[in-house]
Amino acid sequence: MSAALSVGQLARLCGVSRATLLYYEGLGLLCPQRSASGYRRYGEPDVRRVQQIRDYRATGLGMDAIAALLADTPGPALLQDRLREIHTEIRRLREQQAVLERLLGLAADGPMTVARWTALQHAAGMDDAAMQRWHALFEQQSPQAHEDFLRSLGVDEPEIARIRGWSRGISV
Length: 172
Known about the structure:
By secondary structure, the protein is mainly alpha-helical. It folds into three domains: 7-70, Multidrug-efflux Transporter Regulator, Chain: A, Domain 2 (Orthogonal Bundle); 75-110; 112-172, no CATH class. It has helices at 7-14, 18-26, 44-58, 63-70, 76-103, 114-123, 128-141, 143-152, 157-168; strands at residues 33-34, 40-41. It has a two-stranded antiparallel ribbon with strand order 1-2. It is elongated, with a radius of gyration of 24 Å.
């Protein structure tokens, strides 16, 4: 990358519009250098900054939250809050999905639940010790996916914390 990019070059490089970059500047999220003739000039830190803004936007965060994150004020708490909001929204959408499937006659057996999942595992030949090892491996190899899986079964937060806690204590 050259030492100084124009607003158009930065826009193309980052996959955003020129107007978006000017909007970010207006919010104080970008502060370009100015050439002797007054043109905006951007460097590598600006490229990284725009990419960071795009990543935050992809999470659904608003510009105020992004500005706070870039200022490093709240740290990861804002991102954790957003993740919790997304989990709540997913849960709400799954409930709507189940109602629609029931109304359309598509969900005769209902959603997967802990009881159905456990019965399925037992029917496949897994005893309780094997199921505990399965949880321990899942937690060890992909903790977020394990948490998401437990949520998909309708497990509440305290029970998820309990399962994940004892999963971490099992050696595999």
